[in-house]
Amino acid sequence: MLSEKILAARFAEVVLPHLGDALSLARWLTGNTADAEDVVQEACLKAHAGIAGFSGGNARAWLLTIVRNASYTWMARNRPRAVVSVGDLADLDDVSPVPDDDADSPEAALIAKANTAAVEAAIAGLPEAFRETVVLRDINGLSYREIATMLGVPQGTVMSRLARARGLLMTELGGRHHEPA
Question: Is the pTM of this model over 0.70?
Answer without folding.
Answer: no
